[in-house]
Structure formats: structure tokens, C-alpha cells
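re the bet — no i am not wrong, look at it urself. input seq straight from the record:
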Amino acid sequence: MIFRYSEWREGQDKSKLTFDELMRLFSQMLLHTNGDVNDALHWMTDLDDKYQLFDDKEGVGFDEFLDWLKKEGYLQEYDDILALTHKGSRRIRQDALNEIFSSLRKSPMGEHESPFSGEGIERLSETKPYKFGDQPSNIDFTSTINNAIKREGIDDFHLKEEDFEVYETEHLTSCATVLMLDISHSMILYGEDRITPAKKVALALSEMILTRYPKDSLDIVVFGDKAMEVNLQDIHKIAVGPYHTNTKDALELGLRILKKKRNVNKQVFMITDGKPSAIFDRGRLFKNPFGLDRKIVNQTLNAARHCRKNKITITTFMVARDPWLVDFVKELTEVNKGRAYYSSLNKLGEYIFVDYIRNRKQRLR
């Protein structure tokens, strides 16, 4: 597999990379190697041969970096085998979150006024007539006074209950999310790595929920020939295989997971680059990689309908422009009343985070 690394500035002083900067690069390597620590370190030495990442004279050589990883608790050695610790997994999530939110802060769309909002009440610009139970702090005094003047005039000004108006509010409610990652073979075909950005989004989203939204839940599902859950600690290990795309099995698994949740809002995020090409039929895998097989498509759409009946919204992020994929996602979105985006790989995290935070809001009336 060939990876193309961009934004390397040839003129920069590479000998001044700190341990922390080297760790961020190491996190990237771990994503590409599906969590294989030895392979990631080998790639680091290859990059050092070409770009002189380490500087033994300044005490930031490879051996010193490896000792630092162990001392900080990111790596642990078992019988001469290096393994990532829980702290190391958390550091990868943190690096992914920082990278994605860094791009969000630079976004001209302005979707994230504050990416670190927690639970609470947010005042809107719209107003409504006051009803018993509304918070006095949300009274719109300008509109209230105007209503009294319109009713009686300025000379006989006095307030009645019907004059009062309050601002509309949105309450940030708890949310249960299932993030589905396509691991079919096409996610690494044609020299384009689509699975690594998808894993990075899963890592960042899990870190944001764990640290900023502790009442929310996130479950990770991968799907190829079949769908299965992945532990949050193992996201960086997700690998593509010689699989077809069983979208129906993924939706059914996501539905079973979300039915057990007590959160107010429930949603599915699905990242895929291909149309559904497989289903289980009477316990056996039925597959057809050519075109849109109506047997496969119709059963997959039925799974999307079941999600809708359970008030579960599906948001699909397409990381390819395959016409068959676009046609299928259009049908899926209509059936589920969900959303769909075509996303370039470098904007995938931005779109998902904008949608996640937006979907956590529910208007109170």
C-alpha cells in the first residue's frame, strides 16, 4: 500500500521536533498500521532516514524517544513485544480530536461557535407568548413593553399577563450515536486510503463524547460481509478486509444497539464508499457486486424504515462518487427521512462534528 504525505515543508528545521511533536506523528503512523506498534516505529525510522526527524546531539534521538514513550506510559513491553497502553490509546484519540477541531476553528462556515458546549439552555432570537413555567430570565422586555403600548397606549401603560413574551430556547439533550465504518475492500483500493480518515473521525468523536458529553453514548460498528461492534479502545486497530458491503446487517445491528439506550436522541452516522452488495439470506451470505441488486437494496431499505419507525435518523457520509452509491443513498435518505453528504476525505471530520453538535439540540416549547 502506498501513502502520500502532504504539507511537508522542506525548509523547516526538522532537527527541532519535540517529543510531543514526534508523538503526534507516531499517532498517525499507528492509524496507518492498524495499531501495530513495531510497524509504526519502523516507519518512523524510515522517515528519519529521509527527513532527519531525530537529533541524537540534542537528546531527541530514536532511542530517547522510545524511552520517553515507555516512561510516559504510552507503550509497555511484554516479553520483548511493544504494545500500546490505555493511556496510549487515549493519546491517539486526543490527537485526532485536536486535529479535527483545529480545522473546525478555521472553517469559514462558522458552524462551531463553541465546540466545548455542555448541557444547558441556549436562548434563540425568536420569541413566543409567555406560559406558566417559562423562566423569568428569558423574558423579552422590549417585545413585552411594545405589546402593552399597542394594547392601551403610552398614556395608560400597564402590563397584563398576555403582554409578556419570552425567548425560545433550545435544550442540549443527551444523544446516543452509532458510528458505522465501511471496511469493505474498496476503502483502500485505487491508491486512495479512505479508512484512515474514517478511523480518525471515530477516535475524535469518541474522545469528544467521553470528555465533553459524558451523558451521551457512542458505539462503533464496522461492516463488510457482516457487521460487528468494536471496542472504543480498539478503533485504531480497525482494518479493511477482502469484504463485500453488507449495509443491511450494519443497520440492523445499529438498531439493536440503540433500542437499549435511554437517551432522548438516537442517530446513526454511516461512512461508506460503496453501494450495498451483500445480505444474509436464510443464514447464508448472498452477494452481488455488480450494479444495484434489487433484492439486496430492498432489504437494506427495509432496515432503514425500521430505524425510522424507532425515531433513529441515519446520516450517510459518502466518500466516493460512485453513481450506484449516490442512487442508493438517495433512496435510503428518502425512506429514513435522514441526511446525506458527499464528503471529501479531508473534510469528513468537519462535516460529522458539525452534524453531531447540531443534532444534540431539541427545541423546548
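see?? Residues 14-84 form one domain. told u. also Residues 123 and 258 are 30 Å apart (CA to CA). so pay up
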